[in-house]
Recover the amino acids of this structure.
């Protein structure tokens, strides 16, 4: 009796699936971009902001933006996709608003909203005009900002 060394079609398919799965897992690396956790305090002329938002816009346009809500006492924590995950490592332009984001929530969708007047300089809310920048590094980043009147 002579045995053939040619694998059955089912065996070849299984082998291809195993090899492709291994290559796919190897190509994924660590599962995503290198992140840095980012938190800090935001003040205006030395006094903590009590509400608002902060946003980090990447200088290269290749990474996603990160945002955070300013809490009582001026503290914030950034997120990109999940709460507290931080920002992708790199350079950012920073924008800050002291308008409470909850002011935009209305009982009737589309109802007019009276937005309160900001107490910080208008340019602070524009990442291209604020003059605020940040560098996010791997690990934990404590980044504080003090907005000055000009």
């Amino acid at each position: 009796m002579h045995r053939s060394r040619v694998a059955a079609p089912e065996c070849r398919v299984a082998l291809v699936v195993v090899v492709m799965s291994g290559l796919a897992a190897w190509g994924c690396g660590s599962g995503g971009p290198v992140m840095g956790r980012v938190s800090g305090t935001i003040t205006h002329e030395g006094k903590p902001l009590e509400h608002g938002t902060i946003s980090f816009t990447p200088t290269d346009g290749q990474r996603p933006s990160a945002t955070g809500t300013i809490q009582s006492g001026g503290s914030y924590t950034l997120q990109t996709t999940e709460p507290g995950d931080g920002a992708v490592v790199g350079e950012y332009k920073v924008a800050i608003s002291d308008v409470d984001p909850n002011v935009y929530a209305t009982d009737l969708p589309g109802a007019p909203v009276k937005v309160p007047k900001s107490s910080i300089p208008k340019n602070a809310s524009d990442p291209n005009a604020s003059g605020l920048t940040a560098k996010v590094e791997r690990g934990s980043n404590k980044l504080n900002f003090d907005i000055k009147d000009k």
Summary: Strands lie at 35-44, 47-48, 52-58, 66-70, 75-77, 87-88, 90-97, 132-136, 139-142, 145-147. The longest helix spans residues 9-28.
